[in-house]
Amino acid sequence: MLDLSSVQLDGSHTPAKNGGVAVGYQGRKAARTTNALFLADNQGQPLALATPQAGQHHDTFELEAVFGELCQTLEQADLCLQGLFLNADKAFDVNSLRQACAHRDIEVNIPRNRRSADWQIDDDTLFDPELYRRRQVIEQLNAWLDGFKTLLVRFETCLHTWLAFHWLAFTVLLLRRIGRSPTS
């Protein structure tokens, strides 16, 4: 049921109304938020969720450790990481992610970030715009997750409860997909 021809990486800042663990002020949202990173398959099915971080941090804060946690979740599910294509937006154009992916034999498809100091360096970085268009499925996943009202705004102060709600939402999304698939 999974389409692992490519995987999509993105983050989401969720407003946190009651405080709690992993909450920080995010000026862009003008609220206290929690930031979570997700991996989804090529059809938008959520695969992994990293431990959320305080919202004042950018998506790339401690990215090597967070990405390692996402990969560990996939490995525990017996999904092979070698040869995967990883799509992410240009906010994830950092050397630590590129090196972590290379270490795991994951091919990255991330556009160069012009804000980066080395964006003009010719380093043989490949980018496939056609593959990058598939990134829209993770944006659609974020919209689907917003449909779960308990995930739209974080009222839980305990991080484990909030994570459990995410895993329940992931399960519901998988069951919806299974329910749509043709039976043989």
Structure description:
By secondary structure, this protein is an alpha/beta fold. The protein has a single domain (7-180), classed as Nucleotidyltransferase, domain 5 (2-Layer Sandwich), CATH 3.30.420.10. The protein is built from 6 helices and 7 strands, in the order E-E-E-E-E-H-E-H-E-H-H-H-H. Strands 1, 2, 3, 4, 5, 6 and 7 form a 7-stranded mixed β-sheet that branches. The longest helix has 22 residues, at 159-180.
**Number of DSSP helical runs:** 6
Which fold name is given in CATH as the topology? Nucleotidyltransferase, domain 5
> Structural class, judged by helices and strands?
alpha/beta
Radius of gyration: 17 Å
Please give the share of residues in helix.
Answer: 25-40%
Quick gist of this model?
This protein is of the alpha/beta class and 184 residues long. It has helices at residues 63-76, 95-103, 129-132, 136-146, 149-152, 159-180, and strands spanning 7-15, 24-26, 31-40, 46-49, 53-54, 85-87, 107-109. The longest helix is centred in the last third of the chain and has 22 residues, at 159-180.
